[in-house]
Amino acid sequence: MSYEEKGTWVYLVVSVVVYAAYVGVLLARAGGAPLAEVEYVAPMLWAIGAAIAAGIVVRVAVEIIRPSESYRSDERDRELARRGVAVGWWGVVAGALGALVLALVEADYFWIANAAYLGFVVSAVLSSVTTIVAYRRGV
User: Fold this and answer.
1) Each residue's pLDDT tens digit, 55-111
2) CB atoms within 10 A of CB 1
3) What is the rounded distance in angstroms from the CA atom of residue 98 to the CA atom of residue 85?
4) Of 59, 95, 82, nearest to 130 (Cα)?
5) Based on the number of CB atoms within 10 Å of its own CB, is 31 exposed (0-12), middle (13-18) or buried (19 or more)?
6) Does the model's pTM come out above 0.85?
7) CB of 123 within 8 A of CB of 92?
8) Strand, coil or helix: what is 130?
9) Cβ atoms of 124 and 11 closer than 8 Å
10) 31 — phi, psi (to 5°)?
């Protein structure tokens, strides 16, 4: 597995795990109350920071445990990453449009912020899965 493919796997796993933990924290804090009343700003900021830190730490750990033969990207790696990013942008677009619609209907800030955050997570998943499938199919 190439260095770039390993990084894509780390990005996918970290994005999903951290977002799931964030949602878990919100649901636990809600305790049956409406979600819009839950304090979400600090957990969201912590989740974003944790995703960044975990991505770095896990990537380093993966390379320590199973070092790559080369750390250079070739043309194929760049093309697959480009395809993944192109597909992933649709997640950002969907999240931004969702947040915009929520703002236009004057929804609670909670829903607007979470729509935007979900858009980033969907983008990470879409781009990672697209890239990994391309690697696996030998494109």
Assistant:
1) 999 999 999 999 888 888 888 888 999 999 999 999 999 999 999 999 999 999 999
2) 12
3) 20
4) 82
5) exposed
6) yes
7) yes
8) helix
9) yes
10) 50, 40
